[in-house]
Amino acid sequence: MTSRRGFLATAFAVPGFCLAFAAGAAELKEDQDFRAIDPPLAAPKDRIEVTEFFWYGCPHCFDFEPVLAAWVRKLPANVSFRRVPAVTANNRWVPAAQLYYTLEVMNLVEKLHRDVFNAIHVDRQRLDDEKVLLEWVAKKGVDSKKFSEAWSSSGVQGRIQQVRELVPAAGLTGVPAVMVQGRYLVLPQGSHEDMLAIVDRLVARVRTETGAR
Hints:
This protein is an alpha+beta fold. It has a single domain (34-210), classed as Glutaredoxin. It has helices at residues 59-72, 94-105, 109-121, 130-139, 144-151, 154-170, 192-210, and strands at residues 34-36, 48-54, 79-85, 177-180, 184-186. Helix 1 runs antiparallel to helix 3 (109-121) and helix 2 crosses helix 6 (154-170). The chain starts with 33 loop residues before the first strand and ends with a helix.
């Protein structure tokens, strides 16, 4: 992980990730507003699923988090949300993914997800250093021994392996990124709000396509 706010989180060297198009009221345009995922990925049949891909070390993900959190709080009952910590082929982002999934198996995501971002980007803590990380979680009231056990567990390692397969299947080129129902990947927009406006419209599109209510 890194706390350098100047880092552009394009995992696969795609320039200008944050330069994008405004999300206007015009019809959605493929390869401008979104990219169709072919073949589509597995998704729930009883609801519409929105997936965020992120990296804790990404300054853009840090800025996106409060905007996204406010949006998630307003989701209708038939739309679910999940986070996926992206990993890259060079394994640079694996410690951050391992941190997220450790929090997840310990049911600590809601309590500490935002705190992790703040620790890295505000407090400049190197949570990619195991000693620093264990000291940090202990200060947050977490049993560091249990955390360490969860960190190295097969459950966490299995989830990371699933992400290794999901990232290329989704066609991910950088973070933050949002996928809708395993069918559409939102392309970079002019602002975080613009990106979520595209997500809303893709959710409506999936609802029409599937007949979901």
